[in-house]
Design brief:
The structure holds two protein chains of two kinds. Chain A is built from 16 helices and ten strands. By secondary structure, chain A is of the alpha/beta class. In chain A, the strands form two sheets. In chain A, strands 7-6-5-8-9-10 form a six-stranded parallel sheet. A four-stranded antiparallel sheet of chain A has the order 2-3-1-4, sandwiched between helices. In chain A, helix 2 runs antiparallel to helix 3 (64-77) and helix 8 (167-178) packs across helix 9. Chain B is mainly alpha-helical. In chain B, helix 6 (171-204) packs antiparallel against helix 7 and helix 7 packs antiparallel against helix 8 (239-261). Chain B is globular, with a radius of gyration of 19 Å. Classes of the chains: A alpha/beta, B mainly alpha. At the A-B interface, helix 8 and helix 13 of A face helix 5 and helix 6 of B.
């Protein structure tokens, strides 16, 4: 079972964007390809994950190479890219390695931005699409539900997804390092720059109120204040508002410094030591760097925020080691479970076979004993069942143990042969 | 027997301190859990050691300076565990345990010889000692949180996340913790010291002026009083308040040192 599982594809690691963008196909085309792959019997089960950073085929097939060729020939054909162009960019894995890859992708350990949360949703969508096309069978089903569970654990148990990797989220995170909770903190947004607005919105999402907006043009300030459900304040009153708020975001097109150290120093005594956090997203800078030297005042410009983001990415990489070992443990567990599942059909048919014999023989015996009372019947029933269970015990244990040890196939064949079970049922159609 | 159990407790504290510092540097949750479990284990052993000592000596185990320091440690660790639980500051023990150890490892040296005569022990002295000890242990936490504040503030001002950045609580939390521990310590310290001065003034007369432990205690009290005054009246927050807390703790250590070096009337 697990041996026939494969994954084949290309990603940001192997293929340039110029190739990846050519492989983007719409949902209808994907449905067509999925139906074709299973319809022709190339794959027993299949799903296709197609995002801007990766295109991958997950499936169960007798000959994985054939399935991989067929899938990518069809996806490339859409934009006229031959399989020979794609082949050198493709990677493929099967068995436990494919499981490992699926778990890493879903957990965002293979993502361009390590730990980004979107990929899990994309994998779920791809799985749902394949399910709606009825190309998902027991193997992909258990693989993907386990992949989702592993991704969830990686998210909750490690810090791979923590620590902001965008400039505006880094600003929110820094504020959390300064303030004891962000609820009820007030924000002053100076200027109507797009980045500033985005940062202000991020802060609002944290439950912060109220928001003040100042702009050189009063009309712009009012419009933006309406948009953000804030209050417009006159540009001339900047200094006095600065004395009250906790966070100041500057994002203007001004060519010079708007907030000087002397101005900030003047409002500090009235703040009674409450920290003041400046986020200066404008270039050239609007806040005098010397403001950072004042007590309980912190100034971060765009470069500072970027260096925080870089440090956060490095931190995610450190934490990824823990996530990788978690994934590896889960792969082993999953492979063991899949292997133990593959002997189940043999055990079931062996049981059915013996049960069939028991019933037949019991029926014949009872027919020869017309005068038998209920007690005798029940005794015979129990006797025959006991014999069947005793006989079943040893082969069942043997099958389970051997599947764990990785040579379940050999014993499945031996037992089928010995008991005349014929072709074991329940396995994927070959 | 109590010495053996005490050494076990001290060993647990040492390993816990190492694990706590390592978890801060390498950001591993497993290490920080280990540190907490060892701290709890060490504290339980420490409790047993104190009780055993009381039983073995058939007197309250607070009469020697060594016993007093041991009790300060015991209380400080208890408070540290409480703060970690109450405020979710999981990295607190990385800063408290090293201080506790610096005190604890000083015990076998000069501190063990210094003792009050059991016959001079009155209820007054026991109350004096107990109050001062509670105050001192809260000041250990005050020092720890002030150091944490200064480190975190430095990193935020430098605008480059350093080693400690990821596991430290917010500046405001740390500042609040510094203020809280100081406000908790101060009444105990004040009443405890006042009792000591009144009592010693009656018993020793002019000798009180020459007692180094008493003199240093007075300086220490003045530094902490100034810090608290600055915080409440002058609205000091953050760095300045933290520097004063550190200065106060330096005088506190000097006071203990003075108690060991020049024994004065406290030793006789």
């Amino acid at each position: 079972m697990i041996e026939r599982l494969f994954v084949a594809g290309l990603s940001h690691r192997t293929a340039p964007i110029a190739v990846r963008e050519q492989l983007v196909v719409d949902e209808d085309k994907l449905r067509e390809i999925l139906a074709d792959l299973t319809g022709r019997g190339t794959c027993a089960e299949v799903m296709i994950l197609s995002t801007c950073n990766r295109v991958e085929v997950y499936g169960v097939a007798e000959v994985a190479g054939e399935a991989r060729g067929a899938a990518f020939r069809q996806m490339g054909a859409h934009r006229g890219i031959g399989l020979s162009t794609l082949e050198p960019l493709l990677y493929s894995m099967d068995g436990a390695e494919a499981v490992h890859h699926a778990f890493r992708v879903a957990s965002s350990l293979d993502s361009m931005v390590l730990g980004e949360p979107q990929i899990l949703g994309q994998v779920k969508d791809a799985f749902a699409l394949a399910q709606s096309c009825r190309t998902v069978g027991p193997v992909l089903h258990s693989l993907m539900s386990q992949a989702f569970a592993v991704a969830k654990r990686v998210r909750s148990d490690t810090e791979v997804g923590r620590h902001a990797v965008s400039v505006s989220f880094a600003a929110v995170e820094l504020a959390r390092k300064i303030f004891d909770g962000l609820d009820g903190r007030s924000v002053l947004l100076v200027g109507a720059g797009e980045m500033g607005e985005l940062a202000a919105r991020h802060f609002q999402d944290q439950g912060m109120l109220p928001l003040f907006v100042a702009n050189r043009t009063a009309g712009r300030a009012q419009a933006l204040a309406r948009d953000l459900a804030g209050t417009a304040v006159p540009f001339e009153e900047l200094a006095s508002v600065m004395g009250q708020v906790d966070i100041v975001i500057t994002s203007t097109a001004a060519r010079e410094i708007i907030v000087t150290a002397a101005e900030v120093a003047r409002v500090l005594p009235g703040r009674r030591g409450r920290p003041l956090f400046f986020i200066d997203i404008s270039v050239p800078r609007n806040v005098d760097p010397a403001v950072n030297d004042l007590e309980n005042v912190f100034v971060y410009d765009v470069d500072d925020l970027r260096s925080v983001v870089e440090a956060n990415l490095r931190e995610r990489k450190r934490q990824a080691q823990q996530a990788e070992s978690l994934v590896e443990r889960e792969v082993t567990k999953f492979a063991d479970r899949l292997r133990s599942l593959e002997v189940v059909p043999t055990i079931v048919s062996l049981r059915e076979k013996l049960e069939e014999i028991r019933r037949a023989e019991l029926g014949r015996t009872l027919a020869r004993l017309p005068g038998a009372d209920e007690v005798t019947r029940q005794a015979l029933e129990a006797l025959s069942q006991g014999i069947v269970n005793k006989i079943l015990h040893a082969p069942t244990v043997k099958l389970r143990d051997s599947s764990k040890a990785g040579h379940g196939h050999r014993w499945m064949e031996v037992i089928s042969e010995l008991f005349g079970l014929g072709k074991s049922r329940g396995g994927p159609a070959a | 027997m109590n010495a053996v159990v005490f050494d076990i407790a001290l060993t647990a504290y040492i390993v816990a301190a190492a694990a706590a510092l390592a978890s801060l540097v390498w950001r591993r949750d497993g290490l920080s859990r280990l540190a907490r479990e060892l701290t709890v284990g060490g504290w339980l052993c420490h409790t047993a050691a104190i009780v055993l000592r009381g039983v073995e000596l058939r007197r309250a185990p607070v009469l020697t300076l060594a016993e007093a320091v041991s009790l300060v440690i015991w209380l400080a660790v208890l408070l540290d565990l409480w703060v970690e639980r109450r405020y979710g500051v999981t990295t607190f023990n990385a800063f408290i345990l090293p201080v506790v150890l610096a005190l604890g490892l000083g015990l076998p040296t000069g501190l063990r010889d210094l003792a009050l005569e059991p016959r001079t022990s009155s209820a007054w002295i026991l109350v004096h000692v107990a109050l001062v000890l509670v105050g001192l242990s809260a000041l250990v936490l005050n020092f720890g949180s002030a150091i944490m504040y200064l480190l975190q503030e430095r990193q935020l001002k430098a605008r480059r996340p350093g080693t400690f950045y990821y596991r430290m609580p917010s500046l405001e939390t740390l500042d609040r913790l510094t203020l809280m521990t100081l406000t908790a310590a101060f009444p105990f310290l004040t009443v405890g010291l006042a009792l000591g001065f009144v009592r010693a003034g009656r018993a020793w007369g002019r000798d009180l002026v020459g007692d180094p432990l008493a003199l240093f205690s007075l300086v220490m009290w003045l530094v902490y009083a100034a810090t608290l005054f600055g915080r409440v009246i002058g609205h000091w927050r953050g760095r300045r308040a933290a520097y004063f807390s550190v200065a106060g703790f330096c005088v506190l250590l000097a006071t203990l040192g003075a108690g060991v070096l020049f024994q004065g009337r406290h030793g006789s």
